[in-house]
Every structure is written in C-alpha cells, then in structure tokens.
Write a structure and sequence with these properties.
The complex is a heterodimer. Chain A is α/β, with parallel strands linked by helices. In chain A, the strands form 2 sheets. Chain A has a 6-stranded mixed sheet with strand order 6-7-8-3-9-10, with helices on both faces. A 4-stranded antiparallel sheet of chain A has the order 2-1-4-5, covered by helices on one side. Chain B starts with a helix and ends in a 5-residue tail after the last helix. Chain B is of the alpha+beta class. A 4-stranded antiparallel sheet of chain B has the order 2-3-1-4. Helix content of chain B is about 70%, strand content about 10%. Classes of the chains: A alpha/beta, B alpha+beta.
Chain lengths: ~240, ~300
C-alpha cells in the first residue's frame, strides 16, 4: 500500500483499501485502489478527464459508496456511516470546487458564515471568525461583495475561506485552479501550501501535471480507474 | 437546533422569497387561482345543498282524519303521528281551520259554504326528516286509527332526492377534483422553484448542512406563500360573495328572495373561508415545498 514517508506513528486521515466503484450500467470508475494519506501531507491526485478522479473525491465526501473495499476518512468507515451522520463527516472536510460553488444570493461574508451556521455556532463567534478567515485569504475588503461582483480568483478565495472556517483537518480541492488565470492559480496553490504548513492535510485533484510537479510533495496518478503511480517528490516549490 | 439558528433560517426563508420574487409571485398566483376555484365550488355546493334542504322541508304529507273524529280524539292521533319514526314536524288544522281556509280561498263567494261548516275534515301536515323513506313513513301514518287518507307527493320527493344526491356527490366531487388539480399544479410549480435552486441545495450539503437545516427555509417560504395566497383568495371569494348576494337581494323577486333566505350569509361563512384557505395554504405550501426539496437532498 502506497504511503508517504512520514513518521510511522502519523495518523492516517484517508485510507482506500481494495476499493472498487462500479456505476449502474457497468461503468467501472475505480478498481483495486489502495492508498493512505496521512496527517499533514500535501498530495496531488493527477489524472486525465475520465480517469476516476471525481469518483475518488465522491467516495471521500460519501457522495458515492464503494462497490467493494473500504474507504476510511478521519477514522470513519464510510461504508458503515449512517446517512444522518454524513453532514457531520463533511464538516470535518473543507472542500473547494473548480466552479467555486458559492451561493449566488449571499455575500462573501454570508457564504463563509453559512458553513459555520450549519454547525450551530453562535452569531458572536461567526462575526469574529469570518472576517479573520477572509483576511487570511486576502479578501478583507470584499466581505460585502456577492459572487457575481468578484473575479474568478476572488471567488475561489471565498470558497477557500469557507473550507477553512472550521479549521478542518483535511482540505480537498477539486481542480481549484481550473477556472482561473495561471498567475492567480499560483496564488491559490500558495494559499493551500500555507494551510498545509500548519498541519492540515491537503488533497488536490487536478489534471494539470505541471502544477502538480511544481507544488506537490506526493503525486498519486490515476488512469482508467487504477492508481498507476504514487511518487514522493522533493518537497515541491517553497513559498 | 439553537433559537438563533432557527430565527436565522426563518429570516432566510423570507429573504429567499424576495431573491426569487418571480417564482414566488408565480406560486402565489397559481395557488390563489386554485383556491379561488375551490372556494367558489365549495360555496356553490353548500348553498345549493341548503336550497335543496329548504325545498325538501316544504315537502309534506297531508293526513286527513275521518269526519267523525272530534277534537279530543284528533289530539290523541296527533301524539301517535309524532311518535312515528322519521316525522320531523306536525301541524294540526282543525275542521274550523279547514273551513276558514276554504272560505278565504273562495273570497266573495265564501257565503256559499254556509251550512257546511263541519264537512271539512281536520288534518295534520307532516314534514319528514328523510325523504328517501317517505313512503314507509306514509304507510305507517295511513295505518293509524282515525286517519281517513294520506296524500304524499312521492314524485316530488323523488326529484328532491335526485337533486340532493347530485349536489352531495357531484358538488363535493367537483370540489375534490379541483383540490386535487390544485395540489398537482402547485406541487409542480414548487418543484420548479426547488429545481432552480438545486445547486444551492447541493452546496449546503457539501458544507455539512443537515436535511432539516436545508428544508426549514424552504418550508417557511412555502408556508408564507400559502398564507398569502390563502388570504388573497379568501378575500376575493368573500368580496365576490358579498356582491353577488347584494345583487340578488336587489332583484325584488319573491322566489329569489325566498330561496335567498336559505343561503348562508357572509357572516356565517367568512371565517370558514378564510381559515380554510389559510390552513390549506399552509399545508399545501409548507408540506409541498418540504417534500419537493427531499429529492434534491440525496447528495
């Protein structure tokens, strides 16, 4: 089983054991996937369109269930998790999507605050924490802007702020630079690196090989539903 | 759920109404139109039913007593008539009453009846509760000692029964169909509004919102739309009813005025209309919205 050369006692955050996913209709999206991602790792999951990256993510988010094998995230076996517990699993995962997925009727502040409200955090705490996180991603002055008033890079920063607001142990980014300019992509990746530096596990799913080579310590390559390579790099480009 | 979260979600529901105002207006419009049709059908059915009841009440069996029956004996027969099942009301007309009635009918020729004061038989006018068993009731009345003959308008009773059945089954059937059509149209409109916001719902799911947390604003939105539509439609129905009754009352036609007496007054029905429409609005709007959201919660 591929595993990064972190300390032997470093807790495993994401574990795939003999995972297979077959969609109705017989399309095999993933097969025989075995991997472990430990606390504090910065991992790129690389693959072409249709390679199985999205299914990999959907399994971690428990949007889909593995047809065979076991997926464990943050110590929870996702094949055994009850439907009503899925929201609580997701609160421990900060997710960033290619299309940002911001609620268009809410301001940047409200979009980030919403992620806190769903966990019943008091308003006083929200008013303290959200400006802090928006400041972290460099959007202190855009708190009152709606998504359609922000650039692609800024929208992705809001999404990142939303993912960070709970200080989750795992951040998952699905093609986070897919919809933004190359120079802004670097900024987003640098932000993810900074988040990783404080101990957060970061998993970036992308098809951009160059970006992976430039920033990653570990690249897992998926092709036709199988893990074909799991390489530990030299530590990527520093900040 | 904390009170702060609850009030946030309620406010969010109202805010969403403004943000999606076109769909909100479409929902209110459709719901109002459906409630209007249903409300009019309910009022028509209720009133036609009351008119039929009124006309049925005019339907009576005439029980004539033998000429030799005197007042005391007639009173005893009256008691027996009251004891017959299905008898609702009994009115006694003595020989004198019958004579006086005949005399007044003949008007200036009334003196022709002089000397015939005692030939008109005393009679009872009997109204029944259930027209469908009027023949059975008639047979029992005819069997009472001292009764000479009974006159029962069986054909008229048959017509009344037919009208009553048509109103009961047909009228309420139409109301039920209209209500069903309303629910289908409304649930489709609500589904459209929810479908337009499916992306928003999936985002909420990804950040860890529970189903209850996502549903509540939609539920508040649906209920508010339902209440507004209920108030508008019941207001229009009440105003329309007031004007129709006013118009009919102004016609000065004896028959119409007689029938209008049996109609429900606005004072008797306004609260029924308003409460009915608002409760239906809350149920259809709230439950319809919450159940339409369910499909999109499986993310």
């Amino acid at each position: 089983m591929a595993k990064r050369a972190v300390g032997a006692d470093t807790p495993v955050m994401i574990q795939f054991s003999n995972v297979k996913k077959v969609y109705p209709g017989g399309n095999v999206a993933l097969q025989d996937v075995n991997l472990e991602i430990c606390r504090g790792e910065f991992v790129f999951v690389l693959g072409h369109s249709g390679a199985g990256k999205s299914t990999f993510l959907k399994l971690i988010l428990r949007e889909e269930v593995a047809s065979a094998g076991k997926v464990v995230v943050g110590g929870r076996d996702l094949s055994k998790i009850r439907r009503k517990d899925i929201p609580y699993l997701r609160r421990g995962l900060g997710v960033v999507f290619q299309d940002f997925r911001l609620i268009p009727t809410m301001t940047a502040f409200e979009n980030v605050a919403f992620a806190m409200r769903v966990t019943n955090i008091p308003e006083k705490e929200i008013k303290k924490r959200v400006p802090y996180v928006l400041n972290l991603v460099g959007l202190a002055g855009k708190a009152r802007s709606r998504p359609d008033e922000l650039s692609g890079g800024e929208q992705q920063r809001v999404a990142l702020a939303r993912a960070l607001v709970h200080s989750p142990p795992i951040i998952i980014a699905d093609e986070p630079t897919g919809n933004i300019d190359p120079e802004l992509s670097v900024e987003i990746m640098e932000l993810l690196r900074a988040i990783n530096m404080v101990g957060t596990t970061v998993v970036v799913v992308t098809h951009e090989h160059d970006l992976a080579q430039r920033f990653s310590e570990r690249i897992i390559t998926i092709d036709h539903g199988e893990v074909v390579a799991d390489d530990v790099q030299g530590g990527g480009e520093g900040l | 759920m904390r009170l702060g979260s609850f009030s946030y979600l309620v406010k969010q529901g109202w805010k969403n109404m403004g943000a999606n105002r076109l769909m909100t207006l479409a929902c209110i419009g459709v719901l109002t139109a459906c409630f209007l049709l249903t409300g009019v059908a309910v009022l028509l059915t209720l009133n036609v039913g009351r008119v039929v009841d009124y006309l049925a009440d005019q339907n009576e069996i005439v029980v004539t007593l033998l000429p030799e029956v005197e007042e005391e004996q007639a009173a005893a027969i009256g008691e027996q008539i009251k004891g017959v099942p299905n008898v609702q009301d009994v009115v006694y007309e003595s020989k004198d009453d019958a004579f006086n009635q005949m005399q007044s009918m003949l008007a200036e020729y009334g003196n022709l009846l002089e000397g015939f004061e005692r030939i008109f038989p005393a009679r009872y006018l009997v109204t029944v509760q259930d027209l469908t068993i009027i023949e059975d009731t008639n047979a029992r009345l005819a069997g009472i000692a001292g009764v000479e003959k009974t006159y029962v308008p069986v054909d008229l009773a048959g017509v009344m029964i037919a009208i009553n059945n048509a109103v009961t089954y047909g009228g309420w059937g139409i109301v039920a169909i209209l209500a069903l059509v309303s629910v289908i149209i409304i649930s489709n409109t609500i589904r459209l509004t929810v479908f337009a916001r499916r992306k928003e719902i999936s985002i909420m799911k990804y950040v860890g919102a529970t189903n209850a947390f996502i549903r509540l604003p939609f539920f508040v939105e649906g209920m508010t739309v339902g209440i507004i539509a209920g108030l508008i439609s019941s207001g229009i129905v009440c105003a329309g009813y007031y004007f129709v009754m006013d118009f009919l009352n102004g016609m000065y036609n004896v028959w119409i005025l007689k029938i209008l007496d049996s109609f429900l007054t606005l004072g008797q029905v306004w609260y029924f209309i308003v409460i009915g429409a608002v409760v239906a609005g809350i149920l259809i709007g709230g439950v319809g919205t919450a159940s339409s959201v369910r499909k999109h919660l499986k993310v």
